[in-house]
Design goal:
Elements: E1 2-3, E2 8-9, E3 18-24, E4 27-35, E5 50-53, H1 74-77, H2 79-97, E6 104-108, H3 114-128, E7 144-148, H4 153-156, H5 158-172, H6 188-201
Helix pairs in contact: 2-5
């Protein structure tokens, strides 16, 4: 907090700029914080380091047994759910780009030389790969066969996984679904209750 006679300002500071000050070197009770001001703070021109009392610092953290003093950030706590959500969306996007249908295998009754194989794969990709080529009819002749590969259980459960990821991330951020517009499973009374709790406790 930056105090002067007429106003009080709150400075958001990244965690790597703060070092805990303990009552006995690197152990004991937390007695304050040492701030290394970022370049954008006016204090950076006055001092390389500033010692702050506990009352001058508002520390936002999620408790962590590995580091009870610093804790971990909400983003770190939700990191696995965020990564899983991003990967599942990438998988869904790749599936849609590939016509959004189950994968398949092309077989030929004779062995092909590498040049002919590459040429056929390129033509097949141009004519049938991508959302814009969905539902086109393929004509196979000369010994070619197409075998559909059923979608895996992983593909079929992606939608449920994304829903669980959303709830996990919102839980870590202490944000009810109604605040971010996820109201499919809520009635009006529940939505009002969630909004009120979020307003009261934030």
């Amino acid at each position: 907090l930056d105090h002067d006679e007429d106003q009080t300002r709150i400075w958001p500071v990244p965690p790597d700029c703060m070092r805990p000050l303990m009552s006995s070197y690197d152990r004991g009770d937390l007695v304050g914080w040492e701030l290394t001001p970022p370049k954008w703070m006016p204090q950076s021109a006055k001092s390389l380091r500033v010692n702050l009392d506990l009352d001058d610092v508002i520390h936002f953290k999620v408790c962590s047994p590995q580091d009870p003093i610093r804790g971990i950030s909400q983003v770190t706590a939700a990191a696995q759910a965020v990564e899983t959500d991003l990967l599942s969306k990438q998988h869904t996007s790749a599936t849609l780009r590939n016509r959004g249908v189950p994968k398949g295998i092309l077989t030929y009754q004779y062995a092909l030389d590498p040049t002919d194989e590459q040429e056929f794969k390129q033509k097949w990709k141009q004519q049938f790969e991508g959302v814009e080529n969905a539902e086109k009819t393929a004509l196979l002749h000369g010994g070619w066969k197409y075998q559909t590969v059923a979608a895996s259980s992983t593909d079929l459960s992606l939608m449920d996984r994304e829903d669980r990821n959303q709830k996990e991330i919102l839980g870590v951020m202490r944000t009810p679904p109604s605040v971010v517009g996820l109201t499919n499973e809520l009635n009006y009374a529940t939505q009002l209750g969630q909004d009120k709790n979020f307003w009261d406790k934030t």
